[in-house]
């Protein structure tokens, strides 16, 4: 078992509450698991998440990836002193998904003093890899009052 990387731990219910009234809630993104070094969540494939050809929209894949990666990044810092914001995100779309749920898992690749890199793998319901995303986060100190 891996050592926990979190500075603050939140439950899936707490993280889902943070997403109320956001794009993540609108798209049906739900955090389902917080492990010692990963966050996992799902997104339904439906009329809100597909493009005209009936496949999951690539941009929606990126929203799922960045949502989970951003949550993970902020759990990995002392939130009394720092917060994390997205600097760069990319995605390789490998397989179209037409139905069911997309499951994404965000894992840390680099935790630095001023930046972090997260890799997010998205899979279809059969466990087949559909997208790989990489998210770079900036670690920013809270402004001093």
UniProtKB/TrEMBL annotation:
InterPro entries in the cross-refs: HotDog_dom_sf, PAAI_dom, Thioestr_dom
One matching Pfam family: 4HBT
UniProt entry tagged with the keyword Hydrolase: yes
Annotated Thioesterase domain residues: 53-131
Coiled-coil region: none
UniProt entry keywords in alphabetical sequence: Hydrolase
Similarity-based family: Belongs to the thioesterase PaaI family.
Protein's name in the database: Hotdog fold thioesterase
Annotated organism of origin: Simiduia curdlanivorans
Source lineage: Bacteria, Pseudomonadati, Pseudomonadota, Gammaproteobacteria, Cellvibrionales
């Amino acid at each position: 078992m891996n050592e926990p990387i979190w500075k603050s731990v939140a439950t899936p219910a707490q993280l889902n509450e943070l997403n109320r009234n956001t794009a993540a809630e609108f798209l049906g993104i739900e955090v389902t698991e917080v492990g010692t070094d990963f966050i996992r969540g799902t997104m339904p494939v439906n009329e809100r998440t597909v493009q005209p050809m009936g496949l999951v929209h690539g941009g929606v894949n990126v929203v799922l990836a960045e949502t989970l990666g951003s949550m993970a990044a902020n759990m990995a810092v002392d939130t009394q002193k720092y917060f994390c914001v997205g600097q760069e995100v990319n995605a390789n779309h490998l397989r179209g998904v037409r139905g069911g749920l997309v499951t994404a898992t965000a894992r840390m690749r680099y935790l630095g003093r001023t930046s972090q890199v997260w890799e997010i793998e998205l899979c279809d319901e059969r466990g087949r890899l559909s997208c790989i995303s990489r998210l770079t986060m900036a670690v920013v100190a809270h402004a001093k009052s």
